[in-house]
Amino acid sequence: MSDSGSAKTVSVAVGAGLATAGLVVGLAGPKVVEKILLKLKPGGKFSGMNKPTAGARTVKELEVGTHPLQLYSMATPNGQKVTIALEEMGLKYDAWYTNIMSGDQFTSGFVKVNPNSKIPALVDNDAPGGKPLHLFETGNILLYLAERSGKFLPTDPAAKAECLNWLFFNVGEAPYFGQFGHFTRYAPVKLDYAVNRYSTEVQRALDVLDKQLEGKSFLCGEEYSIADMAWLPWVRCLEIFYEAYDTLEMSTYSNVAAWRERVEARPATAKGLIINSGAQNGAFKEYHSA
């Protein structure tokens, strides 16, 4: 069968994605398969970003401001966790907009700070020992900043452990929220299995939060903590970025809704949400001393 003939007779079920594309290899020539794969765009919106290798792709040093803390980030939920903490803790920092859609996280300077090429990445030029300290992974950054500032982390061992329960629950659960967003908003192929799987998990997590917040102002009681800072951006993202308020029946989680309103009313938290974003005509997109 010729390539042109195959193109007329081979049907690719888009819902089956790459699995279907793989099946036609035995029925069609390589040119037809290549056309199918290009049409499906298996990486979707992020096809140019994702590769199976690590390391720098371009040579470029990071810019540095005058403050001890240098943040390289973007106002995604993970980025917002850190800017909320920095604002709430009153720490001096420079926040440099890092456009992950343009590949800024793959520059040599960024990879030096975070070999995993994910935002946010933080450098403390006034760290203990007198040497710059590179920090990545939001749970680690929030814990470090809380201990550095002495704020938003209980000093009592039992209360601290409780706070860290909820912080690291977020660290483990946030990727499920991200996968929900990917398969409902960005995936080039609509897969009902994936959508249902991640919708169910996100709703389960919201129910966990809702039950924990019963009779409480914040996740760990009456004191705002880094656990709340970690969870707010991802809960907020479900409505603001993923537009899934109705899909996830978020109105049924009344304790979560009240908590979110309470937390978003905090001026420092509200400001932290818009650092390194395009909000207010980009007034805080670049937020540094340079």
Automatic annotation (TrEMBL):
Single GO molecular function: transferase activity
Domain GST C-terminal: 156-284
Domain GST N-terminal: 66-153
Record Pfam families: GST_C (PF00043), GST_N_2 (PF13409)
Top-level taxon: Eukaryota
UniProt xrefs under PROSITE patterns: GST_CTER, GST_NTER
InterPro entries: Glutathione-S-Trfase_C-like (IPR010987), Glutathione-S-Trfase_C_sf (IPR036282), Glutathione_S-Trfase (IPR040079), Glutathione_S-Trfase_N (IPR004045), GST_C (IPR004046), Thioredoxin-like_sf (IPR036249)
SUPFAM superfamilies reported for this sequence: GST C-terminal domain-like, Thioredoxin-like
Family: Belongs to the GST superfamily.
Protein name per the record: Glutathione S-transferase
Organism: Ectocarpus siliculosus (Brown alga)
Encoding gene, per UniProt annotation: GST
